[in-house]
């Protein structure tokens, strides 16, 4: 009897040890703040002062300044060892002039990605438009620091943060795609081309699109409060889960003021239909459009990098990184409810 008791206790001990070891293996805790800390106001400012400089001539679609913009974006991905999904060294999704019409020249989207470790076939697309409206007739340059230089540099910093996680052995479970689209200002052409003509990753496998269009400024409504905020548009239209994830991430890490004014289906501004997320939403892909609202410098030469709130831009970029992190690493993909357009 005593021998049986000893054997029983030994078995219990070994089972307990094995269970403890398995728990340690399966419940590895990774703190995403380790990687979001690489997103800094100093780096955002340094990049934006170049990207929204006169050298880039307002980044009008198909024009020389826009070509400088895509080379700038590509150089960042090359320097950080973040590959292209198109082919080695080729980050440009070429869009022919015939697709645009109205005298617009050939243009390009820029695409990079980090392959998921566990569910690489499932994709989160983080997007921003790389173009702006060019040069005025009097020669004044529309630098587009907020629109959408702020979104462009935010993606570059977010990509760098995900790359830091991958280097540390904590890359995302799902694939993260960094999509810089052209032709937004003339009709959402770049995102439409990606979604309708040449989706590098199947739309059926695209879990969500987080679209960043103007996140560097403060609009008149929020000037007096001094509190960091963002307008969120579309988060609950196709997936209640996406909306809930977004809210939970914000409450856990940032506590920004989320303003849903422009999310109203009856909003007269119709911003839901006016940025690149819409070409994903039309394909029943859950979206969030991050937006700081319009201001007096919107689509004017006075939209310059000295007017950006870089502390706000840093925190907003970190918020989007953490939201993408959560979507990429949760066990189940977001549930989607179909909506006709």
Written description of the protein model:
The protein is α/β, with parallel strands linked by helices and 341 residues long. It has one domain (31-175, 183-329): Aminopeptidase, CATH 3.40.630.10. The chain is built from 10 helices and 8 strands. An 8-stranded mixed β-sheet has the order 1-2-4-3-5-8-6-7, sandwiched between helices. Helix 8 links the parallel strand 6 (229-233) and strand 7. Helix 8 crosses helix 10. The longest helix has 25 residues, at 2-26. The radius of gyration is 22 Å and the shape is globular.
Short précis:
It holds the Pfam family Peptidase_M28. This protein has an 8-stranded mixed sheet, with helices on both faces. It is an alpha/beta fold.
Largest sheet: 8 strands, mixed
How are strands sequenced across the largest beta sheet? 1-2-4-3-5-8-6-7
Q: From the alpha-carbon coordinates, what is the Rg to the nearest angstrom?
A: 22 Å
Assigned CATH architecture: 3-Layer(aba) Sandwich
CATH topology description? Aminopeptidase
Given helix and strand content, the structural type is alpha/beta
Number of extended strands: 8
Q: Would you state the CATH class?
A: Alpha Beta
Write the layout of secondary structure elements.
Elements lengths: L1 H25 L6 H4 L4 H11 L12 H16 L12 E4 L1 H4 L6 E8 L4 E11 L15 H23 L6 E8 L7 H9 L8 E7 L16 E5 L6 H14 L3 E3 L18 H4 L5 E5 L18 H20 L12
Parallel strand pairs: 3-4, 3-5, 5-8, 6-7
Antiparallel strand pairs: 1-2, 2-4, 6-8
Helix pairs in contact: 3-6, 3-10, 6-10, 8-10
